[in-house]
Design goal:
α5 (about 80-100) runs antiparallel to α6. This protein folds into two domains: about 5-120, no CATH class; about 140-250, Leucine-rich Repeat Variant (Alpha Horseshoe). The protein starts with 8 loop residues before the first helix and ends with a helix. The protein has helices at about 10-20, 25-35, 50-60, 70-75, 80-100, 105-115, 125, 130-140, 145-155, 160-170, 170-175, 180-190, 195-210, 215-225, 230-235, 240-250. With about 250 residues, it is mainly α.
Length: about 250
């Protein structure tokens, strides 16, 4: 993989393209939606007011010219949408590495993502990046359960909201690969988490686990439903029958 360190023209061109599309009215709406006011989880984040489909289109346009160093530069941007395009471009680079069986290049991408997770600083940035990146990584490396758990433990025990959410959401590709253990382990680990964004993430992944093995989810809920935050429980049992949902909620 090309990781040249000189200032990249691609990152400059991408930034200029995004700045040219600035929409202040839409930006104001997004800043309210993503809770950027003082004391809120997205405090201080800045938006250009560019919709995700446009960002994806620009990522596709520049995907053949970008390097991992470009992505690193873009992750340093003050603008939310530019950090998002950096993450989408990292996914495209990871896909290329997987296709070329470039495991070393893929490890470099995941290493950058790990180091720069503080710049992946809102739930949409986490959710739109971690599932694809970690899914590609685990399929290529074929890490066993213990290796995956060791990796996820660093994020889960960090005390950093976005690393914690990244840990929880990254079990999604593992569920698709048929491994449910990480989901139930992390759901138990985060059972007393205080933040609503983690309650939703845990419930979401439990619901996905239930789509694969409803009995395994029931077994988990029978052990922990009285301790789960109500938001988590509501998400987890969304696809249960009305009668069964009522039984669990009353507990």
């Amino acid at each position: 993989m090309n990781t040249k360190t000189e200032k990249s023209t691609a990152s400059t061109q991408i930034s200029e393209a995004f700045l040219s599309l600035r929409n202040d009215e839409q930006a104001a709406h997004l800043m309210r939606f993503f809770k950027t006011a003082p004391g809120q989880y997205g405090e201080g984040d800045k938006f250009l007011g560019i919709r995700v489909p446009v960002t994806r289109s620009l990522a596709k346009k520049f995907s053949n010219d970008v390097t991992l160093h470009d992505c690193d530069i873009l992750l340093g941007s003050e603008w939310h949408e530019i950090r998002l395009v950096a993450l989408l471009l990292m996914i495209k680079l990871a896909q290329k590495c997987a296709k070329a069986r470039d495991l070393e290049g893929l490890k470099q991408i995941i290493g950058l993502y790990d180091r720069r997770l503080e710049r992946v600083n809102n739930w949409d940035l986490v959710d739109l990046s971690v599932r694809d990146l970690m899914g590609i990584y685990w399929k290529c490396t074929k890490d066993d359960y213990e290796a995956r758990r060791l990796f996820l433990s660093r994020w889960a025990t960090s005390g950093h909201l976005w690393r914690e959410r990244a840990a929880m959401v990254s079990v999604y590709p593992l569920l698709r690969m048929g491994s449910l253990d990480e989901t139930f382990w992390l759901a138990e680990h985060f059972i007393n988490h205080r933040h609503d964004l983690m309650h939703k993430a845990v419930g979401w992944m439990l619901r996905e686990a239930g789509k694969i093995d409803r009995d395994a989810l029931r077994q988990f809920l029978n052990s922990f439903c009285t301790q789960l935050p109500r938001t988590t429980l509501r998400y987890a049992i969304e696809h249960f029958s009305p009668n069964e949902r009522e039984i669990y909620m009353k507990q």
